[in-house]
């Protein structure tokens, strides 16, 4: 295979491996809309990176992390329904990001690449960044696995047992923000949440335990990356959407199988 395909494959697998367990928590805790909000804010990070002439990955990560913290604070105040708050921030940050990016008259910006991913242009540096962040996120997930499961099953009971619920919940949101920041290269702002949710939803129909579901979601995500890249290479289709469509196809296949008892 050409070098650019190897880099694209490795970058996609790096994201899929960590998106599996993180996406499982997103499915269990019904955080898909939260993921969308963070993903839409990524474009604002791109605009900030261009404005300040800093690394776009760092800028996107900082904006996603900042928005995650803001969401945690706003959710704790409960002055407005969570879904309403997410809807407002999601579309507002996306619109602001699009406007800011469009104002850079002297800078050539490929909006399609940011919105739908540009996996085939992944470089060696991108692969190193993705695997470094993925390894860090997976390590934290392993350390927090039991507390995360506890607050997912029953937050009040977990709090009674001495688990710092707010801290663990915040950590989960920050981890999701980091993964969304690195996934932008693979599937773009508009499709990031699909890579988190679809493999996890498919794995849920094939497994019995949380650990099996997390591992299964990672494996299905890797399969989606490989088949999506193959489709993109042979039929000249956009790589990011092809990966997401492959994941959707895998989910449809799981519908043919009865869920385990």
UniProtKB/TrEMBL annotation:
Transmembrane regions: 6-28, 40-73, 85-104, 125-145, 171-201, 213-233, 239-256
Keywords: Cell inner membrane, Cell membrane, Ion transport, Membrane, Transmembrane, Transmembrane helix, Transport, Zinc, Zinc transport
Location, primary (coarse class): membrane
Pfam families xref list: ABC-3
GO CC annotation: ATP-binding cassette (ABC) transporter complex
Gene Ontology BP term (one): zinc ion transport
Record keyword Translocase present: no
Membrane-protein topology: Multi-pass membrane protein
Function per UniProt: Involved in the high-affinity zinc uptake transport system.
Protein family membership: Belongs to the ABC-3 integral membrane protein family.
Name the UniProt record assigns to this protein: High-affinity zinc uptake system membrane protein ZnuB
Species: Exilibacterium tricleocarpae
Gene field: znuB
């Amino acid at each position: 295979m050409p070098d650019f395909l190897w880099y694209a494959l490795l970058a996609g697998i790096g994201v899929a491996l960590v998106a599996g367990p993180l996406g499982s928590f997103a499915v269990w805790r019904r955080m898909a809309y939260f993921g969308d909000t963070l993903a839409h804010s990524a474009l604002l990070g791109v605009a900030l990176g261009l404005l300040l002439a800093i690394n776009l990955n760092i800028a996107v990560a900082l904006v996603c992390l900042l928005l995650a913290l803001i969401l945690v604070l706003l959710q704790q105040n409960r002055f407005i329904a969570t879904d309403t708050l997410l809807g407002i921030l999601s579309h507002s940050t996306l619109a602001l990001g699009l406007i800011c990016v469009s104002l850079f008259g002297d800078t050539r910006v490929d909006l399609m690449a940011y919105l739908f991913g540009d996996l085939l242009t992944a470089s060696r540096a991108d692969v190193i960044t993705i695997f470094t962040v993925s390894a860090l996120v997976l390590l934290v997930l392993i350390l927090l696995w039991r507390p995360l499961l506890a607050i997912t099953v029953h937050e009040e009971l977990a709090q009674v047992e001495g688990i710092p619920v707010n801290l663990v919940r915040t950590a989960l949101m920050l981890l999701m923000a980091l993964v969304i920041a690195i996934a932008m290269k693979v599937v773009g702002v508009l499709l990031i949440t699909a890579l988190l949710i679809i493999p996890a939803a498919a794995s849920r129909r094939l497994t019995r335990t949380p650990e099996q579901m997390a591992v299964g979601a990672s494996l299905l995500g890797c399969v989606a990356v490989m088949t999506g890249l193959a489709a993109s290479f042979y039929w000249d289709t956009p790589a990011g959407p092809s990966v997401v469509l492959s994941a959707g196809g895998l989910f449809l296949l799981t519908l043919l199988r009865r869920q385990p008892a």
